[in-house]
Amino acid sequence: MSWWNHGDERPGRPAATRARPDCFPAPKLLPNAYEKRAVVLPVKKERATGVPEAIAEKIREMVARGILAPGMRLGQAELALQFDSSRVPLREALKLLSSEGIVEHDPNRGFFIARFSSDEARQLFRMRHLIEDELLSTVVWPTKIQLAKFAADAANLEKLLDASDRSGWWMQHRLFHHRIFDLSPDKVIVKEATRLWMLTDRYRAMLPMPRRGSEERQVVEKTSFVKALRSKDRGELLQVRRDRRDAFESLVLMTLKEREL
After folding, report:
1. Where are the beta strands (DSSP E) in 70-223?
2. 118-258 has the same fold as 30-113
3. Cβ distance 68 to 75 under 8 Å?
């Protein structure tokens, strides 16, 4: 019988070199290389996406506080220095804000804070009416722990208003509403409702901080939301949201009219 059928047992050949033709040595370096890539790549991706979002969040806050006024040009060199960032993540942040409608991009002139417009505001509020009503009709009622968190946040928002902490109030106010939206399992609608909410919320930069006892203060109080959530009254929750949204829209449109925008 041929030596091919006996594992290459030819006389005089060292045992270490004997092998059948269908046996090949396994790669030595590939497993380690793949293992290393599996560990490193997700970390790099997380860092790459985290920095632009952090910069975008700071710019959103500056817009809401009126530090960055409508129509203001955003110099990338100045912003990169201010945020201690390179231009690459900064540009990604500006593109993100451009997709949200907070920033406008002119290929020849650069990035600008979007201008206020009565026509835009009416359309945005109209979209909010439709989408938020649909969204709130699907929320899952919060647990006792979540309710306690909502109640604590509502009380903290009142303290921030009394302290005239515009920046702190704006951030906590946004988070409060986003947590309510997030009670819905319909995450695509949640994402769109959040986007529209951000686009109208930038108009708050035109409005003064609501003083205690004023009509404007009633527009932003949150105890009514907590009450509706605690009682699991969907009709009341929808009505409270509509009333607050309508009042905010009226304030925005009235201010825009006064400014002839």
Report:
1. 73-74, 103-106, 110-113
2. no
3. no
pLDDT at 2 over 90: no
Q: Which tokens in the block code for residue 63? A: 């817009």
Helix or strand or coil: residue 258?
helix
Q: What is the CA radius of gyration of the chain?
A: 29
pLDDT, one tens digit per residue, over 14-48 is 554 444 445 445 555 444 444 444 433 333 333 44
110-113 and 73-74 beta bridge pairing: antiparallel
Give the domain ranges of the chain. 30-113, 118-258
Beta pairing partners, 112: 73, 104
Tokens matching residue 10: 């030819």
Considering only 27-36, 68-77, 104-113, 252-261, which range has the smallest mean pLDDT?
Answer: 27-36
Residue type (1 letter), 205: A
Pick the closest to residue 7 from 26, 25, 22 (CA basis): 22
118-258 has which CATH code?
1.20.120.530
Give the pTM: 0.69
d(CA 137, CA 127) in angstroms, rounded, equals 16
Joined together, the tokens standing for residue 66 give 């009126």
Tokens of 166: 């515009």
Nearest Cα to Cα of residue 173 among 215, 138, 217: 217
For the stretch 160-180, pLDDT in tens is 988 888 888 888 998 999 999
The H or E element containing residue 195 is: helix 187-201
What's the topology of domain 30-113? Answer: Arc Repressor Mutant, subunit A (1.10.10)
Instruction: Count Cβ atoms below 10 Å from residue 168 Cβ, excluding itself.
Output: 15
DSSP at 86: -
